[in-house]
Amino acid sequence: MAPAAFLLSESNPALIPLSLLVVFGSAKLMAEVFERLGQPGIVGQILAGILIGPHVLGWMAPNQVLTVLSDLGVMFLLFRVGLEVKSSELMKVGGTATVVATAGVVLPFFLGWGIMALWGAPGIEAIFTGAAMVATSVGITAEVLASKGLLTERASRIILGAAVIDDVLGLLVLGLVSSMARGSVNLLELFLTAAIALAFAIIVARWGSRAMVRVVPRVSPRLNVSEAEFTLALGLLFGLSLLAVYAGVAAIVGAFLAGMALSETVEQRVRDLSSGVTELLVPFFLAGLGLHLDLTVFANRGTVLLAVLILAAAIISKFIGCGLGALPLGRTDAIRVGVGMIPRGEVGMVVAQIGLGLGVIAQSVYGTIVFMSVATTLIAPPLLTWAYRGAAKRGEPAEEVIRIG
Amino acid sequence: MAPAAFLLSESNPALIPLSLLVVFGSAKLMAEVFERLGQPGIVGQILAGILIGPHVLGWMAPNQVLTVLSDLGVMFLLFRVGLEVKSSELMKVGGTATVVATAGVVLPFFLGWGIMALWGAPGIEAIFTGAAMVATSVGITAEVLASKGLLTERASRIILGAAVIDDVLGLLVLGLVSSMARGSVNLLELFLTAAIALAFAIIVARWGSRAMVRVVPRVSPRLNVSEAEFTLALGLLFGLSLLAVYAGVAAIVGAFLAGMALSETVEQRVRDLSSGVTELLVPFFLAGLGLHLDLTVFANRGTVLLAVLILAAAIISKFIGCGLGALPLGRTDAIRVGVGMIPRGEVGMVVAQIGLGLGVIAQSVYGTIVFMSVATTLIAPPLLTWAYRGAAKRGEPAEEVIRIG
Fold first, then answer.
1. Residue A359 domain-assigned?
2. What's the pLDDT tens digit per position in A200-217?
3. Is A21 exposed, middle or buried (0-12, 13-18, 19+ CB in 10 A)?
């Protein structure tokens, strides 16, 4: 057996408690400050990550402990959100969600590509930047909507549905540009991959809930393990997250689908226990986004201009693309959907990192994309609060408020 | 910014969901099987780790994701246990606990040392093996007692108190043998370190609860963040865990003290949310122990004999040492305390790993110590069930059963 197994904790026994205290503590402190100022606590938590990160105070650098907690945190966040969404209601808005997702992928991709091409970037770098502007990070929007009890709004359902489809389309785009970078494009294989991912999502969304309503109430009372229903729920969560990765999409898509499949059957106890996990882990996801912001981008004036241009393009193209897709439902919903799809979060960063790994994008462009990802994420919560102000004013019942963030 | 930050998940996006599914799923499955057979579910979970581990099925090897989850799991387990323990009640048994801990350190140390010396091992290797037999892993015992609602028994309080003192003594022993291995012993420094650790534990145990009873009810209603009380509790948990590491003892000692400091003030909601975390993470701690078992030890007949000898010595010396310490309280409590202190769990493994790192113990002795650690951990739950059968039969009220495992 490799003695390396305990190395993580043995080499520095303070790493885990130190990371926990500094990141959780600063995130919650900033959340408290922001809420007192009437601002979204979620923005405070991302800013906390920037503040303690390598470029400002330098208290904390990204490390593997934080990566595990952040990945697990966003997985449970989407699971918890899924628990409040009935698949039948999501299916109702399926058509609109597809149009929203498609328009919200095409416009940012071509705008990003165009700007970089005009900027004089090599062809493949321009295409990769476009690809990094495609994928929406639904975690941030889900967090805001859940904490305000707005998940039942029609626009919220469209955003969640579109985010799932968006992930499949993002997979297609990333696969396409990655194979272009490697110099071998197999279109048949690409479309097959996307078809598998889409089939997975549709099958679970359509029949998962029906299956769980039959299985869970029969199986869980017969189990002897403690918290049988929660145990079954976690099993489904991990299983579908893994299947999602195998199907080519993000683990959080599986996590969301698992939550949705269980939304009509599990008891309040499962929601409470899941809340314990999200309360602990979500700050690591939020502050983790801020930790990755690279401020050295701003050492070069040219890159600053490019970063601002890319950021503006990322916001406008997603807002207009998705907003237009939802316009048939009226202006209010169009604005909500457009705003809700803006954050790129961790997804944009991962695409940029793959490009960096393939050697097709420069370090400065990488920094620009990370800046765009964090900035779109920071801008979304206040915009969402504004876009949904009607729903809040109408005082709609928000009994099932998920307390996260 | 180093792009390595996302590497863990990027290099293999399936690593996290795969580790989660395989470890959690197999642990819970084996727990279910064992409980149906009338055996402790906790043993099933450790065996699940052995079964899926590198030497049997080979489905899973220890990895950094599992290490983070396991470390966090045992931290929350001790925190959750601390929440059920009033410090005043622990203080009452302080004298007995000190005697129990001391006898339970001295006897295993000298017996382990003696066996290895007679076996013909080099002096420093013999001493290191003795040191690895010293520390009790309170996680396993705490799990069993908590899940059966037996934390209020007098013997249980003594075990928990002795485990904290045991950790301080273990620090002293490990520091001593490590500096012997390095060839420079500074006794003054060693005793200073132990004094700091002991002072930390005593101060928090004695005044922590009193401070929290005054602080928490005043501060938490004024906070705007969601789940304010749970947030404060997590802050204290992480803070004291970090202080414990800085004071030289294990993070879980700080976690236990944090729970105990909050035991008289927090509401049921905090216990429920913490239970969500332990339900998720404790299986990773338990199965993680099994994952580390090295069965190649048994390829050599000589090592098999040594392993059996060391195991027998580990069980008998702890049982007799701790049992004698608690004998003034009567035979029943003496047996309970003796049995409860047997498991070495992750603590023995960490000591062995340090010895391996210093180059003073052979790979075969390392394997022997890991075997002893896992075997003492497997043997404890059924012995505890037997030792506490009276308490169970008398049908004592176990209203606050912590549902873990």
1. yes
2. 988 998 899 999 999 999
3. buried
